[in-house]
Amino acid sequence: MSDPLPTSGSLRRRLTLQLVGSAAILATLLFFVVLAFARDTAQQTHDSILLASATSIMDSVSVQADEVTVDIPYAALSMLGNVSDDRVFYRVSMRGNILTGYEDLPHTDQNTSSGQSAFDTLTYKNDGIRMVTLSRRLSLNGAPADILTTVAQTREGQATQLAKLSRSALQLGLGFFLVATVLAIWTAQSSIRPLNQLTAAVSRRGPKDLRPVKRPVPSEMIPLVLSLNQFIARLRTSLTRSEDFIAEAAHRVRTPLATVRTQAEITLRRVEKPENRASIREMIRAIDESSRAAGQLLDHAMVTFRIDSLERKDIFLTETAKELVDRLQPIAELKDIDLSFTGYNCPPITGDAILVQNAVRNILDNAIKYSPNDTTIRVSTQETLSTVLIHVEDEAGGFADMDTDALTHRFTRGENAAGTVGSGLGLTIAREVVEAHGGTLQIETSKSGTGACVSLCFPLV
Ligand SMILES: Nc1ncnc2c1ncn2[C@@H]1O[C@H](COP(=O)(O)OP(=O)(O)OP(=O)(O)O)[C@@H](O)[C@H]1O
Ligand SMILES: [Mg+2]
Question: Comparing 44 with 308, which gets the higher pLDDT?
Answer without folding.
Answer: 44
